[in-house]
């Protein structure tokens, strides 16, 4: 339940990566899934979401124009700002923050097109209630810690392990501070929660879904097609 008066919620969709692990000529966020580039499917979730009042898409500088033209072509209803990102994901998020006005901000990977409207709502509501929230799923495998020579050094209790997803939701002012402290200290994190945690802010985990995959390597593309087909069969379209 939302306990704080809200005057707007923005989302930063980061899509300025090179997709090294995908290894495709085209950056993975622009590969076609069904009839649209992956990043357009992702944007549509937020474009249709009633809580989202501000959308900032962060792309490579060379991709701003084609993204604007897709946004027009696919008939997005909200005004979406498209800006250029930075060398690391973290830098791209920070660029987005500099263009954001809303007091609450969600950060989402452009290559997670299967996030649902309900997951976005749950993450946002948990952030407003608890201060910061991330979507995640319980880890299904047994996870081992392994040293540089390949020896197992520990087996953490799986019950405390969650695989972190996006969106992640924060107070904008706090996230800006977290990014600026990280930058000053030369710290690069793989998600925004890590930066917020370093400020001592507690982050609530909200159960996401196993289908909210990040399209990272080629086999994820096959799985993405499969998820899309299953959703279509269930009459859910891509969402
Ligand atoms: N400098 C960067 C790096 C990443 N991202 C975005 O962050 C999201 C998650 O990152 P990841 O899957 O690691 O994407 P890439 O960095 O593109 O992939 P890789 O690490 O394989 O190069 C992606 O939507 C990606 O476009 C970004 O906006 N700016
Ligand atoms: C933010 C993220 O998607 C959460 O799982 C992830 O940390 C991105 O990290 P990657 O190392 O760029 O895949």
Automatic annotation (TrEMBL):
Task: Write the protein's name.
Answer: 2-C-methyl-D-erythritol 4-phosphate cytidylyltransferase
**Gene name of the encoded protein:** ispD
**Listed InterPro entries:** IspD, IspD/TarI, IspD/TarI_cytidylyltransf_bact, ISPD_synthase_CS, Nucleotide-diphossugar_trans
Provide the catalytic activity annotation.
2-C-methyl-D-erythritol 4-phosphate + CTP + H(+) = 4-CDP-2-C-methyl-D-erythritol + diphosphate
> Where does the source fall among the domains of life?
Bacteria
UniProt site positions, description: Positions MEP for the nucleophilic attack: 158, 214
For this protein, the record's SUPFAM superfamilies field holds:
Nucleotide-diphospho-sugar transferases
Instruction: Please report which protein family the annotation says this sequence is part of.
Output: Belongs to the IspD/TarI cytidylyltransferase family. IspD subfamily.
Record-linked PANTHER family: 2-C-METHYL-D-ERYTHRITOL 4-PHOSPHATE CYTIDYLYLTRANSFERASE, CHLOROPLASTIC
Molecular function in Gene Ontology: 2-C-methyl-D-erythritol 4-phosphate cytidylyltransferase activity
EC number(s) per UniProt? Answer: 2.7.7.60
Q: What does this protein do?
A: Catalyzes the formation of 4-diphosphocytidyl-2-C-methyl-D-erythritol from CTP and 2-C-methyl-D-erythritol 4-phosphate (MEP).
Q: Name one GO biological process term.
A: isopentenyl diphosphate biosynthetic process, methylerythritol 4-phosphate pathway
Q: Where is this site: Transition state stabilizer?
A: 21, 28
Q: Which organism is it from?
A: Paenibacillus anaericanus
Sorted UniProt keywords? Isoprene biosynthesis, Nucleotidyltransferase, Transferase
Q: What class of enzyme is it?
A: transferase
Q: In which pathway does it act?
A: Isoprenoid biosynthesis; isopentenyl diphosphate biosynthesis via DXP pathway; isopentenyl diphosphate from 1-deoxy-D-xylulose 5-phosphate: step 2/6
- A single Pfam family it belongs to is IspD
């Amino acid at each position: 339940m939302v306990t704080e008066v809200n005057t707007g919620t923005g989302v930063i969709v980061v899509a300025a990566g090179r997709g090294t692990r995908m290894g495709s000529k085209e950056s993975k966020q622009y590969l076609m899934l069904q009839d649209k580039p992956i990043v357009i499917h992702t944007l549509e979730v937020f474009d249709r979401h009633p809580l989202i009042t501000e959308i900032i898409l962060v792309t490579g500088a060379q991709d701003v124009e084609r993204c604007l033209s897709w946004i027009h072509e696919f008939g997005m209803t909200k005004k979406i700002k498209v800006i250029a990102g930075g060398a690391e994901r973290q830098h791209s998020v920070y660029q987005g923050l500099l263009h954001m006005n809303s007091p609450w901000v969600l950060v989402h990977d452009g290559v997670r097109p299967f996030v649902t409207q309900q997951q976005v709502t749950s993450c946002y509501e948990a952030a407003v209630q608890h201060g910061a929230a991330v979507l995640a799923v319980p880890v299904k495998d047994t996870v081992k810690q392994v040293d540089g020579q390949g020896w197992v050094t520990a087996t953490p209790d799986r019950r405390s392990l969650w695989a972190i997803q996006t969106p992640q939701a924060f107070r904008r002012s706090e996230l800006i501070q977290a990014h600026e402290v990280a930058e000053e200290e030369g710290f690069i994190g793989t998600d925004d929660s890590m930066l917020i945690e370093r400020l001592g802010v507690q982050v609530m985990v909200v159960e996401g879904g196993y289908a909210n995959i990040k399209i990272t390597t080629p086999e994820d593309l096959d799985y993405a097609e499969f998820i899309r087909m299953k959703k279509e069969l269930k009459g859910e379209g891509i969402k």
